[in-house]
Amino acid sequence: MIPEMPMRSPRGFAAAAVFLLALPVAFLYQLVGGAGVEALIHAFLGAGSVLMSFAVFNFKTPKWITWVGCLSIGTLAAIFVVQGASELTSSAMLTYLAYRVLGQRVEGWLVDLFLLWCIAVWLFDSRGKTRIIGFAALSMVVCVEVYANGLSVVGKSISVEAPGLKLLFLPLLGWVLLESWKANPPPVVSVLPSAHP
Q1: Model confidence pLDDT, tens digit, residues 28-55
Q2: What does the domain layout of the chain look like in residue ranges?
Q3: How distant, in Å, are the alpha carbons of 20, 94, 126, 164 from that of 24?
Q4: How crowded is residue 94: how many other Cβ atoms within 10 Å of its Cβ?
Q5: Any residues with CB less than 8 A from the CB of 135 and at least 6 apart, and which?
Q6: What is the pTM of this model?
């Protein structure tokens, strides 16, 4: 009997699940007439980001890119918390800080850095069918980010010009979920006899 291999990253799986559940939960919450749906979405994004900032250490990427992933998604978690708090308090100063100072460019750069970590996971640690899924998901998101950065250069925002394109991040999160679910490969055991008795 072959022993069952543990999941590569339970935290990564939980993070991707939280991200993916944000929209359906927000939709259901809004259907029942709940106010403050934006704060709810930011709470999900913040929780998913915190989980993901720890999960990056479960993947085999160069140490420096692991830290880039951790710090970028961890900083995004803080921004999402500030944005959620601004929605709850309706403070003009907090809203300005959350969306005008921290949002847009800073948030965009952090997303790009996290995307760089995802590319490193695809290059160094992804195998089999999930590698193919990862290529497709990453290709879509890279195109969206190139477009978003192009809009930013001319003073426009993807949130205004084409907000629906942000939904193309969902397949990327699905890929992270699958990569996290996969078992770590078993360690390689040498069958060659030792040179020393």
Answers
A1: 988 887 777 888 999 999 999 999 999 9
A2: 10-181
A3: 8, 27, 28, 15
A4: 16
A5: 122
A6: 0.84
